[in-house]
From TrEMBL:
<feature type="binding site">
    <location>
        <position position="220"/>
    </location>
    <ligand>
        <name>FAD</name>
    </ligand>
</feature>
<dbReference type="InterPro" id="IPR001613">
    <property type="entry name" value="Flavin_amine_oxidase"/>
</dbReference>
<keyword id="KW-0560">Oxidoreductase</keyword>
<feature type="binding site">
    <location>
        <begin position="50"/>
        <end position="51"/>
    </location>
    <ligand>
        <name>FAD</name>
    </ligand>
</feature>
<dbReference type="GO" id="GO:0050361">
    <property type="term" value="F:tryptophan 2-monooxygenase activity"/>
</dbReference>
<keyword id="KW-0073">Auxin biosynthesis</keyword>
<dbReference type="InterPro" id="IPR002937">
    <property type="entry name" value="Amino_oxidase"/>
</dbReference>
<dbReference type="Pfam" id="PF01593">
    <property type="entry name" value="Amino_oxidase"/>
</dbReference>
<protein>
    <recommendedName>
        <fullName>Tryptophan 2-monooxygenase</fullName>
        <ecNumber>1.13.12.3</ecNumber>
    </recommendedName>
</protein>
<comment type="pathway">
    <text>Plant hormone metabolism; auxin biosynthesis.</text>
</comment>
<comment type="similarity">
    <text>Belongs to the tryptophan 2-monooxygenase family.</text>
</comment>
<dbReference type="InterPro" id="IPR036188">
    <property type="entry name" value="FAD/NAD-bd_sf"/>
</dbReference>
<dbReference type="GO" id="GO:0009851">
    <property type="term" value="P:auxin biosynthetic process"/>
</dbReference>
<dbReference type="InterPro" id="IPR050281">
    <property type="entry name" value="Flavin_monoamine_oxidase"/>
</dbReference>
<feature type="domain" description="Amine oxidase">
    <location>
        <begin position="31"/>
        <end position="449"/>
    </location>
</feature>
Length: 452
């Protein structure tokens, strides 16, 4: 962790000490930090407990030893002109830059421009727009687009839902996906200059400057509560008490079954909220960062293979084991990022990183007609983030099931004005599963407490 972060973090206490605060927040991801910053600046005494040895949660930026743009193992893009994210970056003086570039697909031995590769896509969107009763997107496809004629369409939609939304097509809401697709702005994609870590450093700095505390390596397993009285014991032996609690943990952590490793227990139980938590969808993803000695996808051999230069390629979709790849375009670097999401990623949760690397290189070898061993020899460094196997994440980000609206309503209401929930899974806008969604949820939870 960079020294600049360490200097603004208060390390946890030991030896069974007691700490009282106004508001306790569990989780120092985007939602937890945003809530803490809002409350601390309002004069509240705030303590944040974070299980990891760093802040940020599913924002995880690594310094790039090659001196180029930092490496994002987690959140990487600003997907659209998202007001809260961009206003915070502007306030902090953090730059962000366009990340738009051409999209390609490799299929049946051919490279194709993305905008032309899905046959019957317009018919699919029109039919989806007429849907009156929500159902899973898989059920919708099987009902409206049966038969061999639409096989490729069904495969493409399922792959997109699994890859982009990290969702299980058998569970993902057709209404939610329709709303998302109708509101997308493909031209408005950005990266944070210097990495998303700069935003988390800014938020943490504001918290500490306003008198708040952030404790790292503080794993919480049990939450004891009654109205306006919270007590938790962290893994380092410190007992924290507060009047209110914001639970800003990833949905995947909250979905761990009671009694299983990593489960959070509420004493007394909160069955209605736990039922709602388990109703929502939480995706799986593995992200692979590969740095090569040069950008071979821009060379003459690839140009001859594709029939056109791929020097401005942003995204590349395929049906390979690791199906989705992107570059750092419009920057020209030697980095390729691989991505597999949804049920296929969940099946690889226990796969060793060496095997995931092998599958990644084999996928690229198949696409670019190179030898797997040749690519391995040209590999300078690699990083693999298996977020589903991460005990403090248990997955990537939330998606809407058919029952999501009712579940979100339950979770958006505090329990006796004492326990509040915050996280991207509570967001009800079109930017599901984003940093924006997490920030918005954290802000809303904090504002509810300020009104008490």
């Amino acid at each position: 962790m960079p020294h600049s972060i360490i200097t603004i973090i208060t390390l946890p206490n030991h030896n069974n000490t007691m700490e009282d605060t106004d508001i306790l927040i569990i989780g120092a991801g985007a939602a937890g930090l945003m809530a803490a910053r809002t409350l601390a600046k309002a004069g509240k005494k705030v303590t944040v407990l974070e299980a990891r040895d760093r802040i940020g949660g599913r924002i995880h930026t690594l310094e790039n030893t090659s001196g180029q743009q930092p490496l994002e193992l987690g959140a990487e893009f600003i997907h659209g002109d998202l007001p809260l994210t961009k206003s915070l970056l502007d306030e902090a003086g953090i730059a962000y830059e366009h990340a738009g570039a051409s999209m390609w697909r490799y299929e049946d031995g051919e490279f194709k421009q993305n905008e032309t590769f899905v046959e019957h896509w317009d018919a699919f969107l029109n039919k989806l727009g007429e849907l009156e009763q929500d159902m899973s997107i898989n059920c919708f496809l099987l009902r409206e687009f049966k038969g061999e004629k639409y096989r490729r369409l069904r495969e493409s939609v399922r792959q997109f839902v699994s890859g982009y939304d990290n969702a299980d097509p058998k569970k993902a809401s057709s209404f939610s996906l329709r709303r998302e697709w109708q509101s997308e702005d493909d031209g408005a994609q950005y990266r944070v200059a210097g990495g998303y870590i700069k935003l988390t450093i800014f938020l943490a700095g504001e918290i500490v400057a306003a008198g708040g505390q952030i404790h790292l390596n503080a794993v919480v397993k049990k939450i004891y509560w009654q109205q306006h009285c919270i007590k938790v014991v962290s893994s380092v032996g410190c007992t924290h008490s507060a009047k209110q609690l914001i639970v800003a943990l990833p949905l995947g952590v909250l979905q761990v079954n009671a009694g299983d490793s990593g489960a959070i227990s509420f004493i007394p139980p909160i069955p209605d909220h736990i039922k709602a938590i388990n109703t929502l969808g939480f995706g799986a993803v593995i992200k692979i960062l590969l740095e090569f000695d040069e950008a071979f996808w821009e060379d003459k051999q690839t140009e001859m293979l594709a029939g056109k230069s791929l020097s401005n390629m942003g995204y590349l979709f395929s049906t390979e084991e690791i199906p989705t790849w992107w570059t750092q375009a419009p920057r020209h670097t030697n980095m390729l990022t691989g991505w597999i999401g949804g049920p296929e990623a969940a099946e690889k949760a226990d796969t060793h990183n060496t095997e995931i690397l092998r599958q990644s290189l084999q996928s690229l070898a198949n696409i670019f007609n190179r030898g797997e061993e040749q690519l391995k020899q040209r590999l300078v460094s690699y990083h693999i983030a298996n977020w589903t196997a991460d005990e403090f994440a248990r997955g990537s980000y939330a998606y809407d099931t058919v029952e999501a609206n009712e579940a979100r309503f339950v979770l958006s209401e505090p329990i006796q004005d004492t326990i509040f929930f915050a996280g991207e899974y509570l967001y009800n806008g079109t930017a599901m599963g984003t940093v924006e969604a997490a920030l918005d949820s954290g802000l809303r939870a904090a504002e509810r407490i300020k009104q008490l």
